[in-house]
Batch of 2 targets.
Target 1
Amino acid sequence: MIVALVIGHEKDKPGACNEDFVICEYEFNKKLTCAVQEHLVETTDFCVMRVFRRTDYSNLPNEINELNPDLILSFHANAFNKEVSGTEVIYFHNSVKGKKCSEVIQNKILKALGLRDRGVIGRSRLQAGGHLLSNTRGVCLILEPFFIDNNCDYLTAQANLSKLALAISSGIEDCKNIIFNN
Ligand SMILES: [Zn+2]
């Protein structure tokens, strides 16, 4: 199985941030994807690639499709008003495998972090994330494990970073059966 771990945003436009701890999505997910890749390389024979945006967001699906992944995980973190908390995983609304894989990964993340369950969310082409979800081949999920602007969420994620990486890795292993068995 070929797995693409896509780091959301980029160095100069790092996504949502936590001002108190001076950390943004990009930096956090650079570390997280590194740990996920390490686990998978140790425990599976999957080909696991970390993907950084090379051009602009509109071209990201093309950059990912060139790698021919079976499973694509795009790593983000939510932000709202510093108070909202919780975990969600997003999939393309009419992908049956996407929905099943997002449920597996959502449950693993919930166990690792213990934050509020905001559920799995199916999105269509024109909704947030829909460009990536609808234009990539292979099962594509967007992970929002916590709210980075919420100090409590952020500290939970930071303190449990390796647990979170292990949970996501284990979820990816379970997704293999969903992706290859009909
Ligand atoms: Zn983001």
Note: The two ends are 15 Å apart (CA to CA).
Target 2
Amino acid sequence: MEPTARTAVPGHGDLPLPTPVTIDALLTAQEERFARLDRLLPPAPSPEPGEAVNAALPDGTRVAAVVTHQRTEPGMPSWLWSAADTYELQPVVGHTGAAGMDAVLRAFRHWLDRVNDRGPDTAATVIWPSRDVECARVFLDHGLQPLTVTAVRKPTTVRAPSLTVNIRPALASDEDAVVELAMAEVRYSANVGAALLRAEAERTRRASLAGRLGMTDDVWVAERDGMVIGLAETAIVANTPTARTRRQLPIGLWGYVNCLSVLPGARGAGIGQQLMAVVHNHFAGHRTSGYFLHYNPPNPLSSVFWPRQGYRPLWTQWEVRPAGGMR
Ligand SMILES: CC(C)(COP(=O)(O)OP(=O)(O)OC[C@H]1O[C@@H](n2cnc3c(N)ncnc32)[C@H](O)[C@@H]1OP(=O)(O)O)[C@@H](O)C(=O)NCCC(=O)NCCS
């Protein structure tokens, strides 16, 4: 929801909607809180268009939130990591911390009861600064799981480790090997995070990779004895004031890692590390302001690998599937 439309959304709550003045004050306080929590956060974003919910604390303080509904369908890249119907709560709780977050999550729970979507392919979610540990407790108490983090890293070059594999941009002739590596990542991640092994997974991954092979230098492979055994799928992302990423990252040019995958039998031998050394130095050549990616905290490989590579959580996506599982 943009600033001028902050209150121009239909209300849905037990209380009348907070006035525009209250919402503006809450957003300003939230911005101050975010800045105190983590200096890498961009200014707290206004909620997107959706349905407003609101709540009051015992001392009368008013807090609010917007619920958005995103529908994902076969063929969309997000079909492989999102529920078909995602209800996202975007809180506007100012500086009220755990008490305010608990109040809007209760209101969200009532909202979900009213909507009564009992579908199995649904999710309820909140994306919130990872370092707000006071609120982390509240998310856990409401049955939400820290399924995905957006992690960031400084834009420094790295001293390349000695290479045991040949690392090069992927060619059109690598398509089958690249798709197999992308699918190895989907299969692994489906056990330990948000990814879903949908029937359309291979077709979807092939469609998003095939046209880029040999055309760009953002898909890299690691090759040993003529066999492709590692993949890094990356991008240079222009985070402009209208880009969707502006909600999570400071404005600027960012290096992004969408997928890193090493064949199961070749893991733990330094291939991921070598791929990332090449990718990080490639990002640095573009004068990026930082690098970012998403990983799943329950993934026992990536949750160790990425912090060792210099990444740390900025935002956590708290989620429960199906949505009815929220407490
Ligand atoms: C995550 C993943 C890409 C990492 O790739 P990898 O090649 O296994 O990673 P590396 O071997 O470079 O690094 C793992 C560890 O092995 C160590 N290692 C390096 N050389 C080694 C060697 N010769 N023998 C054994 N271990 C070695 C690395 O130093 C590193 O340990 P460290 O962090 O303590 O330094 C890989 O495990 C994978 O494909 N996982 C499944 C899919 C996945 O989770 N992808 C990420 C989604 S976000």
Note: The CA atoms of residues 166 and 190 lie 29 Å apart.
